[in-house]
């Protein structure tokens, strides 16, 4: 039975809080289905209906601009909360939802079916994807009330290679490839998301397969907010040494502050939705790969290997002129964009250089020659964490690629405590300080972020949430959903009696077995 919002309120009026909770749970459960979600949307979030209900407010309150000038500065975090409330007073509902279920629905309505299949691509039976979110319920926050806390400081500090990093928040935007998919036919999706993150001081991680070149994204961040942290660059290690080196040197020259090496793409995930839809994202003729087309080494490889097919498509100066179809298909077939075997090795140019595939080579080159911290993304097992510390890397990201790569795996929040302990113990045995450990996959709210920090994470990375924000509202949409997450974290911290992210300790939580 589907319970409507009106029925919920009627039950509350008749029977009180406990029955109301039961009905509300049923409402939320039913709202997850398309039909009831549509009804929920229509009844409670109809723009015209809201405007009609709030007409009296517009007569009683001063003009919105006047009231806004009278209100205190709520800061970048609190602004999203009060903007929503005060716009609502005047009958306006924000275009970009903060409720995750409504945001997902709006995203699906906004983009193409292919884009939805791509963003929500999940491996196998989706068990890893679901566990990433469900396992947060294993831990519950225990609020403190007598601490006198009225505000929270989200400033996050950590050290890599002896350099101190200070971030405005513990939140970062995870690397997401070819973001032009969510803004098509506008090809600047990466720039919208990067600019939104820069506006509020949230670090941005550039993907190897971004729609825009490294240099353009770094420039956008700097031009948006000179005080914003410089982006980091994520690398899918190529089968061709020269191409990986070219990307890494470009990242260094552009001003990126760290390199993130993704480890969990040894083989392309078994993503049933993509298979059933017959949609292979890298073969989408509409979405070019800006990183490759802007790289002279990539262009040289393409021109040399496919002289009979595509040499006429590349000018001598390396300018990208090949069609999107040839670019995307030839990119994977000849260069091995992934760290592993997305395509048959016979298609990779010979001779293939192998030494750079080792972590030792990458540590020496990135942290030695380039003098940049190397962060390994995709760690889930404590033995891998211990090995990474012994190899001398600067940081880790506990990640399972958002459940896109392998099904039936441990969630990242469940893997986090053992990885943290392994890093701490191995560093102690070597007489070193522990390296920072970040985490991603499945984070949807402030409580999720707080729980990860309490379990020892240095910071949290999010990918799908800002992508949906960018799709629905461009730069402003991405900014709104990121602010929403931070506002939620801020409210959760204050209401739990925690004044500083560095004061979030394990005793903030109890495990609910």
TrEMBL record:
What are the FMN hydroxy acid dehydrogenase domain coordinates in residue numbering? Answer: 92-513
Q: Report the SUPFAM superfamilies cross-referenced here.
A: FMN-linked oxidoreductases
What GO terms are given for molecular function?
A: oxidoreductase activity
Q: Does the keyword Oxidoreductase apply?
A: yes
State the UniProt keywords alphabetically.
Answer: Oxidoreductase
What is the required cofactor set for this protein? FMN
Q: Which InterPro entries match?
A: Aldolase_TIM, FMN-dep_DH, FMN_HAD, FMN_hydac_DH_AS
- Entry keyword annotation includes Oxidoreductase: yes
Q: What is this protein called?
A: FMN hydroxy acid dehydrogenase domain-containing protein
Q: Lineage of this protein's species?
A: Eukaryota, Ichthyosporea, Ichthyophonida, Sphaeroforma
